[in-house]
TrEMBL record:
Species this chain originates from: Oceanobacillus piezotolerans
Gene Ontology terms for molecular function: thymidylate synthase activity
Subunit field text: Homodimer.
Residues annotated for dUMP binding in this entry: R25, R180, R181, R220, S221, G222, D223, N231, H261, I262, Y263
Name of the protein described by the UniProt record: Thymidylate synthase
Protein family per UniProt: Belongs to the thymidylate synthase family. Bacterial-type ThyA subfamily.
């Protein structure tokens, strides 16, 4: 079985060779396959891809945002993380409060029209500054709805009670490690209409054996070039943090994908990545003085000996 970064690159090759051309929500178009699984042995190193640079601080700050149960992009912006901006920005430009130039279909147009891109960047700068400095504006336009953190930490029941799934699963791992119910779900059908983007990584399960903790993620939809490398690193980091709190070693991260797709405007970037050689994986260092997953901050993590190939930029489909 092909594992690790080779499994990811094989996924890219399989989509390019066998993927079905499909229309999609963003009108960008994809090549897609359905049903794919990759496995990463976390003992062999931290799975940040080396065939292109994956920005670990963005991965880590987003994960901490989920863990905090936060759904407002202000925390992300405070940590110079812009990966969710477009979804919040779209809410603002479609509102009656927006009085700037027309921004429809900004994701694609900003890549094709230099004059429009300048306007878009100006409006995005205004938007970000208002999120960071205006509490009322941030409350109105910074929230993304009941996305991941809300479901992980504050799932609402039909009796209007709250379930902290993440806290509960950690307690289960500590006290009933052999359980087959170590599951956290982000897919809450009732809340889907209230989300800026329905969860792509929909549920994950932990497994304890031989004093090691493994994690399997089911991802309904995977943007293979831009999103999946983040997802791999994020759930690897989550597994490390929970293993640390529970006094376990790390085992495998198993990544199961439903619709695994490459956007048609990412083909050239993927081909560039496939031409590159794989390098040694880095090591993750965690501040051992902290025990609870809920106490960690960005400064508590360090990636050592990461020497990837350069970043490959590509447009995001919104």
């Amino acid at each position: 079985m092909v594992t690790g970064e080779r499994a990811y690159l094989q996924l890219c090759k399989d989509i390019l060779a066998n993927g079905s051309g499909r229309n999609d929500r963003t009108n960008t178009g994809t090549y897609s396959i359905f049903g794919y699984q990759m496995r990463f042995n976390l003992k062999e190193g931290f799975p940040l891809l080396t065939t292109k640079r994956v920005p670990f601080k963005l991965v880590a700050s987003e994960l901490l945002w989920f863990i905090k149960g936060d759904t407002n992009i202000r925390y992300l912006l405070e940590n110079n993380n812009n990966i969710w901006n477009e979804w919040a920005f779209e809410k603002w430009i479609k509102s009656k409060d927006y009085t700037g130039p027309e921004m429809n279909n900004f994701g694609i147009r900003s890549q094709q029209d230099e004059a429009f891109n300048k306007q878009y960047q100006e409006q995005m700068t205004i938007f970000k500054e208002k999120i960071l400095t205006d509490n009322i504006f941030a409350e109105k336009y910074g929230h993304l709805g009941d996305v991941y953190g809300k479901q992980w930490r504050n799932w609402k029941t039909s009796q209007n009670n709250s379930i902290d799934q993440l806290k509960n699963v950690i307690e289960q791992i500590k006290h009933n490690p052999n359980s087959r119910r170590h599951i956290v779900s982000a897919w809450n059908p009732e809340d889907i209409p209230n989300m800026a983007l329905p969860p792509c990584h929909t549920m994950f399960q932990f497994y304890v054996a031989d004093n090691t903790l493994s994690c399997q993620l089911y991802q309904r939809s995977g943007d293979v070039f831009l999103g999946v490398p983040f997802n791999i690193a994020s759930y690897a980091l989550l597994t490390h943090l929970i293993a640390h709190e529970c006094g376990l070693e790390v085992g495998d991260f198993v990544h199961t994908l439903g619709d695994a797709h490459i956007y048609k405007n990412h083909i050239e970037q993927v081909q560039t990545q496939l031409e590159r050689d794989i390098r040694s994986l880095p090591t993750l260092k965690i501040n051992k003085e902290k025990q609870s997953i809920f106490d960690f901050e960005l400064s508590d993590f360090e990636i050592v000996d990461y020497n990837p190939h350069p970043t490959i930029k590509a447009p995001i489909a919104v």
